[in-house]
């Protein structure tokens, strides 16, 4: 039980840490990407301003004349390109290879464009102003390949991802130690509580048996006893019987937790279930509930016969208690490969969805106003769950209010 709790605590801790580190990594990447984009935009803007200043508008010819201030090999080596356009957006000339395959933007006032398709390119468009009246006479667009930037971002992603992975590994190792240290006081308190429960239950057995014996003797020889006194003795006997059953259940739970592997032998579950069905046919008939079965034979399991008998007895009694007259309780047993399934299905009152996770808690019982028999101690399903877990099995339940419930016990053969 505590091992599973430690794993859940460790997993929760690692999930929270992973979330924090992921948010941090995303924030770092976003800030770094924006910084690279801003730096590249500033560089392209400077280059564009130089290219615009190097272009001259010839009034006689009515066109832009581009100077020779830029070296095409250098532009290619630095993965840059320059394009000159007239006012209508027609390309006049270009230098370099990293050109944008996009039309000019609608607004060409210092506009930034990014080509998302491969190859990825970023460009900045600036107007070319006439040196006399400072009116636009054309446009220049400077662009640069984003391959280098993408490579840097990829290295950043690898670094951040690797850092997160290493941090989680180291945190997991440390978390195992921390959760173990944190759970030690809880485990010790639980061990003491179980020991106290065992000791108290054991010490209660003797006085309870003494009370039960004396009450039985008094009821057996009622001479001189008033009728009212006889009723009181019967009430005492009933309460004593309930207390004895409760102490026996508590002792069984403690023993199941402390010695899960004792007295193991090969048990024929099909034969055991058939005997239980035969045993409870009469109580089911009294309640006008049909008790039927569908058993595959043989089904063998290595386990404690008495504990397994108690497990299925509790499930059958629980199904009969919560099934109204005219209902049905069916027990099914089958083996698929190395897995054994035993189902106890009823057409009873069902379990509310919010209570499904609590039905195996100790001393928990459903709403007494909806039961059809006197409720027990609330330990029946808890004992069944403990026995199943001590046999490396598990119990699951599906239920619908007003339709019934189905308890499925699963073992590894």
Task: Sum up the structure in keywords.
single chain, 413 residues, alpha+beta, Helix Hairpins, Heat Shock Protein 90, 3 domains, five-stranded antiparallel β-sheet, five-stranded mixed β-sheet, 51% helix, rod-shaped
Can I get a quick summary?
This protein is of the alpha+beta class and 413 residues long. The chain has helices at residues 2-53, 72-77, 147-220, 227-258, 269-279, 281-286, 305-321, 380-390, and strands at 55-58, 63-66, 80-86, 91-96, 111-115, 121-129, 136-145, 265-268, 290-295, 300-303, 328-336, 339-346, 394-400, 404-412.
Please tell me about this protein's structure:
The protein contains eight helices and 14 strands. It is of the alpha+beta class and 413 residues long. The protein has three domains: 2-145; 172-258, Orthogonal Bundle (Helix Hairpins), CATH 1.10.287.130; 265-412, Histidine kinase-like ATPase, C-terminal domain (Heat Shock Protein 90, 2-Layer Sandwich), CATH 3.30.565. It has a five-stranded antiparallel sheet. The chain has a five-stranded mixed sheet with strand order 9-11-12-14-13. A hairpin with a 4-residue loop joins strand 3 and strand 4. The protein is rod-shaped, with a radius of gyration of 41 Å. The two termini are 22 Å apart. Residues 368-375 have low confidence and may be disordered.
């Amino acid at each position: 039980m505590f091992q599973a709790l430690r794993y859940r605590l460790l997993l929760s801790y690692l999930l929270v840490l992973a979330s924090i580190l992921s948010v941090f990594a995303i924030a770092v990447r976003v800030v770094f990407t924006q910084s690279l984009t801003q730096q590249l935009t500033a560089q392209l803007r400077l280059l564009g301003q130089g290219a615009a200043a190097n272009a001259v508008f010839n009034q006689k010819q009515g066109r832009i004349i581009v100077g020779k201030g830029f070296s095409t090999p250098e532009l290619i080596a630095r993965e840059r390109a320059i394009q000159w356009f007239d006012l209508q957006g027609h390309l006049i000339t270009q230098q370099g290879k990293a050109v944008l395959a996009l039309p000019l933007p609608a607004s060409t006032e210092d506009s930034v464009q990014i080509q998302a398709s491969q190859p990825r390119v970023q460009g900045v468009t600036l107007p070319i102003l006439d040196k006399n009246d400072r009116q636009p006479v054309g446009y220049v667009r400077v662009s640069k390949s984003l391959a280098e930037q993408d490579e840097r971002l990829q290295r950043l992603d690898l670094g951040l991802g690797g850092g997160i992975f290493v941090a989680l590994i180291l945190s997991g190792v440390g978390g195992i130690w921390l959760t173990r240290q944190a759970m030690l006081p809880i485990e010790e308190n639980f061990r003491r509580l179980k020991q106290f429960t065992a000791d108290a239950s054991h010490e209660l057995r003797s006085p309870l048996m003494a009370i039960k014996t004396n009450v039985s003797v008094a009821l057996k020889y009622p001479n001189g006893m008033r009728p009212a006194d006889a009723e009181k003795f019967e009430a005492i006997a009933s309460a004593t019987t309930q207390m004895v059953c409760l102490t026996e259940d508590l002792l069984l739970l403690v023993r199941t937790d402390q010695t899960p592997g004792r007295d193991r032998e090969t048990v024929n579950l099909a034969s055991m279930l058939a005997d239980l069905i035969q045993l409870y046919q009469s109580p089911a008939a009294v309640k006008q509930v049909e008790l039927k079965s569908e058993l595959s034979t043989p089904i063998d399991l290595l386990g404690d016969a008495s504990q397994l008998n108690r497990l299925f007895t509790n499930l059958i009694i629980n199904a009969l208690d919560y099934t109204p007259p005219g209902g049905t309780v069916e027990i099914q047993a089958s083996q698929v490969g190395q897995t054994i399934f035993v189902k106890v299905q009823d057409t009873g009152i069902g379990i509310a969805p919010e209570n499904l996770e609590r039905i195996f808690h100790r001393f928990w019982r459903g709403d007494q106003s909806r039961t059809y028999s006197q409720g027990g101690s609330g330990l029946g399903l808890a004992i069944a769950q403990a026995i199943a877990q001590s046999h490396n099995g598990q119990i699951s339940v599906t239920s619908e209010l007003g339709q019934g419930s189905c308890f499925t016990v699963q073992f590894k053969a």
